[in-house]
Write a structure and sequence with these properties.
Layout lengths: L1 H17 L4 H16 L7 H4 L2 H19 L2 H12 L4 H16 L4 H18 L5 H15 L7 H10 L3 H27 L11 H5 L5 H17 L9
């Protein structure tokens, strides 16, 4: 029986790797099959086996991210980065990676990567370099940022839920390490870019004319309130 369950587990992972478009449903069905085959599952004990707290945290964050994405908030953030950098390509790459790092601490990693990938491709094309180093660095920064908070990655959420550690405890222990590695990686990335595009400057005039979004502040304030509530949920006596 154990070998059969292990086989189903292996098949589920193969679907995740090779058939990602149907992996969610397939994995769920294989999980149900494994439960029924073991014949040791009591549905009356469902709440003690499934961590609904973790599921609802993930679902809530996904809903918030979807709303922010539909409202174009992340596109606005990209535009602001280009404006702040004043078109300087090295400064733009640094700011993008720092934004990926800090956003990944509170948002889904895939979302943060997809926000900035078009800009990174444009930069690579503009200064005639391979885009792979820029993309690999962004993935690294995303994973690094995701590990610095209790809600940055699903594994962190699970650990946070089980360990009963505070949100601030996660940040104080992991963020310093993440910031040190962040600046080390930025230094190495700067070495990579120092021979490319140092004199290249983006034209930000068109962005200035199109960078007015009155909804930006409103949605960012709402998102900030959510983050503050998560950070100080113990002091506010709110269950996360």
């Amino acid at each position: 029986m154990k070998l059969l369950v292990l086989l189903l587990y292996t098949i589920a992972y193969l679907y995740i790797i090779f058939e990602p478009h149907i992996s969610s449903v397939t994995t769920f069905l294989l999980g149900i099959a494994a439960v029924l085959l073991t014949s040791r599952f009591n549905f009356s004990e469902l709440s003690t086996i499934v961590d609904f707290n973790t599921i609802f945290i993930l679902a809530g964050m996904m809903i918030i991210i979807s709303i922010l994405k539909e409202q174009g908030i992340f596109t606005e953030i990209s535009k602001r980065i280009l404006l702040i950098s004043k078109g300087n390509i090295v400064r733009t790459v640094f700011l993008i990676n720092m934004a990926i790092f800090f956003l990944s601490g509170f948002l889904d990693n895939v979302t943060t990567i997809l926000i900035f990938i078009p800009i990174l491709f444009y930069i690579a094309d503009a200064i005639q370099i391979d885009a792979k180093p820029l993309l690999i660095s962004s993935v690294f920064f995303s994973n690094l940022g995701g590990m610095t908070t209790a809600i940055g990655d699903p594994p962190n959420i699970i650990i946070y839920s089980v360990s009963k550690q505070s949100f601030i405890s996660f940040v104080t222990h992991l963020m310093p390490v993440g910031v040190v590695v962040l600046f080390l990686q930025l230094f190495l990335l700067g070495k990579k870019l120092e021979t490319h595009g140092m004199n290249f400057v983006f034209d930000t005039q068109s962005i200035k004319q199109d960078a007015k979004n009155p909804q930006l502040i409103k949605y960012l304030v709402i998102f900030l309130i959510v983050l503050i509530a998560m950070t100080f949920h113990e002091q506010l006596d709110i269950e996360l």
